[in-house]
From TrEMBL:
InterPro entries: Mce, Mce/MlaD, Mce_C, MlaD_Phospholipid_Transporter
GO biological process, one term: biological process involved in interaction with host
Lineage: superkingdom: Bacteria
Cellular component, GO annotation: extracellular region
Domain called Mammalian cell entry C-terminal: residue spans: 122-341
Chain segments carrying region Disordered: 351-373
Protein name: ABC transporter substrate-binding protein
Biased composition (Pro residues): 364-373
Pfam families the UniProt entry points to: Mce4_CUP1, MlaD
Length: 464
C-alpha cells in the first residue's frame, strides 16, 4: 500500500468517526444529556400504557419540560419531570396536571393546567404537582379511558374505509350540513325549557315502574287465572255454540209470541193498571197488616181452643141493636169509601166502627155505642192508627170529619181512556167521532186517535 492510499484510508476513518460523533451528540442532545433541567414530581392515581419516558410536558401547548422517570409504589404513580429552567419561573406552584393523548392513536403527554387564580409563588425544584381532580378533568379522563378500548378494537383499515366513505358523503354538502346543525341547535334550544318537565315525567315514570313492579305478582296471577278461563272457554266452545243457538231460537220464539199477542199484552197492561194502582196506594199498610195478622195468631188459637180439652170455636154471642128496616133510595149497597191506607190499633174488645168512622157501604149507620173511639188518635188516647210509616190516617183525607152522611155528594171518579193510542183508546175515539160526524165507528180511520185523542184526554164528554 502506498502512502497516498494510506492517507485516503485515514481520511475515511476520520470521516466515519465524525459522522458517528455527530449522531451520538444528536442522540445525547435528544436525551437531554447537555441540559440541566429542574426536577419536579407529579403524583397520579394511574399512568396507563401510553405515557413513556421523555414524553413532553406542556402548558397551553408550549413544551416546558420532559418526563424523566416513571415509578409506582402500589398506591399510585410518581412521574419525575425535568422542567426547562428558563420557563419554570413563569409557572405558578398551584398548577395541576392531566395525562392527555396527543392524538386519538398517539402517546400521552403531561398537560399542565393553570388555575383560575394563579398564586404569586412560582414552581421550583423538587415541588410536587397534583393531578387535576376537577369535574372537567375527570370527565375528560373517563372519556379517553373508555375510548381507548374502542380504538384498540377497531381495525385501522376498516376505520380508514369508514372515514373515507364519510368524507366522500360529506364532500360538497358543507352548507347543507351547517343548516342541519343550525336547525338541530334551534330544536335543542326549544327543548331546553321543557327539560324540567321531562325530568319530572321521568321521575314519575320511575315511580310508576316501581308500582308496576310491586304489582307484577298479582298481575301474573291474574293472567294465570285468565289463562285458565280462556282454556275453559275453548274447551266449552261447542256447548257455548249450542247455547247461542238455543238463545237465538228462544229469542225467535219470544218475538213470534210478542208479535202474535202484542194487542193482548197491551190490553192486559191496561186492565191491570187499576189493580196495580190500588195495590200501590195501599202498599204502606201491607207491613202493618201482616204484622197485626201475626199478632192475632194467639187470639185465634184461643178462639179455636188450642191447648184445651174443649176443641172448637169459642165465641161470645151478643145481640146488638137493630139497624132498622131497609129504606129504598137510601140503603142501596155501595162502596164509596176512599180513605186510603190505614193501620188501626188492635183494641180488645174491638169497637163497632173504625176510629175515623164507619165504612161507607151505602147505608146510614146507627150512632156508635158509648165508648166508641171517634176522631184522631190524640182525642181518645190511641197512639197511632195512621199508615205504618207513622203518619196519621186522619191526614190522608184532607178536610174529612166523620158524620153519618159524610159520604154524600162524593165526586165520581173520572173515566180513564187507557194507554195512549192503544186499541181501547182507538175504539173509544172512533165511537166519539162517529157520534159527532154521524158515521159508523168502522168508518173512522185508525189514525183518528192520533189527531183527536189529545182533545178528549182529561175532559168530560157527554153524549146526548
Amino acid at each position: 500500500m502506498t502512502g497516498h492510499d494510506t492517507k485516503k484510508v485515514t481520511l475515511g476513518v476520520v470521516f466515519i468517526l465524525v459522522i458517528a460523533l455527530l449522531i451520538g451528540l444528536a442522540v445525547a442532545q435528544y436525551a437531554g444529556a447537555f441540559r440541566s433541567g429542574v426536577p419536579v414530581t407529579l403524583k397520579v392515581d394511574r399512568v396507563g400504557t401510553q405515557l413513556n419516558e421523555r414524553a413532553d410536558v406542556k402548558i397551553r401547548g408550549l413544551i416546558v419540560g420532559t418526563v424523566d422517570r416513571i415509578s409506582t409504589d402500589g398506591d399510585g404513580a410518581t412521574i419525575t419531570m425535568s422542567m426547562n429552567p428558563d420557563l419554570i419561573d413563569q409557572i405558578p406552584d398551584n398548577v395541576t396536571a392531566r395525562l392527555l393523548p396527543k392524538t386519538l392513536f398517539g402517546e400521552k403527554y403531561v398537560s399542565l393546567v393553570p388555575p383560575d387564580r394563579p398564586g404569586a409563588i412560582k414552581l421550583a425544584a423538587y415541588d410536587t404537582i397534583r393531578e387535576d381532580r376537577s369535574v372537567a378533568g375527570i370527565e375528560v379522563e373517563r372519556v379517553l379511558d373508555d375510548l381507548l378500548p374502542l380504538l384498540q378494537a377497531v381495525q385501522p383499515q376498516d376505520l380508514a374505509t369508514t372515514l373515507g366513505a364519510l368524507s366522500q358523503g360529506l364532500a360538497g354538502r358543507g352548507e347543507q350540513l351547517g343548516q342541519t346543525l343550525e336547525r338541530l341547535n334551534t330544536l335543542t334550544a326549544g327543548l331546553q325549557p321543557a327539560i324540567p318537565d321531562l325530568q319530572e315525567d321521568i321521575t314519575q315514570l320511575a315511580d310508576f315502574s316501581e308500582n308496576l313492579s310491586n304489582s307484577a305478582p298479582d298481575l301474573l296471577d291474574a293472567l294465570d287465572d285468565l289463562t285458565v278461563t280462556s282454556r275453559t272457554v275453548v274447551e266449552e266452545s261447542q256447548n257455548l255454540r249450542d247455547l247461542y243457538r238455543s238463545v237465538t231460537g228462544a229469542s225467535d220464539d219470544l218475538r213470534a209470541f210478542l208479535d202474535a199477542n202484542k194487542d193482548n199484552l197491551i190490553g192486559l197492561a191496561h186492565a191491570s193498571r187499576p189493580t196495580l194502582e190500588t195495590l200501590a196506594r195501599y202498599a204502606p199498610e201491607f207491613p202493618c197488616f201482616f204484622q197485626q195478622a201475626s199478632r192475632l195468631i194467639p187470639y185465634l188459637d184461643q178462639v179455636f181452643g188450642k191447648g184445651t180439652d174443649e176443641p172448637g170455636v169459642h165465641i161470645t154471642l151478643e145481640i146488638v141493636a137493630s139497624n132498622g128496616k131497609y129504606i129504598p133510595n137510601q140503603d142501596e149497597p155501595a162502596y164509596s169509601d176512599d180513605r186510603g191506607p190505614r193501620c188501626y190499633p188492635i183494641i180488645m174488645p174491638g169497637p163497632q166502627y173504625p176510629p175515623d168512622g164507619p165504612f161507607r157501604d151505602g147505608s146510614v149507620p146507627p150512632p156508635p155505642p158509648a165508648g166508641q173511639p171517634i176522631g184522631p188518635p190524640g182525642k181518645f188516647g190511641v197512639e197511632d192508627y195512621g199508615t205504618f210509616d207513622g203518619t196519621y190516617s186522619w191526614d190522608l183525607i184532607p178536610g174529612f170529619e166523620w158524620s153519618p152522611n159524610s159520604h154524600a155528594g162524593a165526586k165520581p171518579a173520572a173515566y180513564d181512556m187507557g194507554i195512549t193510542n192503544s186499541p181501547g183508546e182507538q175504539q173509544q175515539v172512533a165511537e166519539l167521532v162517529a157520534a159527532r160526524t154521524g158515521t159508523t165507528p168502522a168508518a173512522v180511520p185508525g189514525w183518528g186517535s192520533v189527531l183527536v185523542g189529545p182533545l178528549y184526554r182529561g175532559t168530560e164528554v157527554r153524549i146526548a
